[in-house]
Automatic annotation (TrEMBL):
One of its GO terms (biological process) is virion assembly. This is Uncharacterized protein. InterPro entries: Phage_tail_attach_FII. It comes from Salipiger profundus.
Length: 102
């Protein structure tokens, strides 16, 4: 079966622009690449600013297969726990991870 050119393009984007991380769901560390989707959110209410600890990252669905809520990511000296994983990519090549610092 020929390689899907869209999948090859997505994989190339992760290879070129991704941030190296370690996925460690159950003590079995595995190197992966992540694309930041959105940094921690900051909400303003008048003079008060509240920073959310949520960080969104995209990962290749194949790299996250079999993992889910509670998986730990180590990136740039920080550990983050996956709160929720969702697939918004119509071709299902990428999974978006909603994470929180641990």
């Amino acid at each position: 079966m020929p390689v899907d050119p869209f999948l090859r393009s997505v994989e190339d984007s992760f290879r070129r622009h991704g941030i190296p991380a370690v996925l460690d769901p159950d003590g079995i560390a595995r190197e992966v690449m992540l694309l930041p989707a959105r940094p921690d959110g900051i909400a303003e209410f008048g003079d008060m600013r509240i920073q959310s600890e949520t960080g969104l990252f995209e990962i290749l669905s194949a790299a996250f297969a079999g993992h889910g809520k509670g998986a730990i990511l180590a990136l740039v000296g920080e550990r983050r726990r996956v709160q929720h994983a969702r697939v918004r990519d119509p071709r299902r090549y990428k999974t978006q991870l909603d994470t929180i610092a641990v």
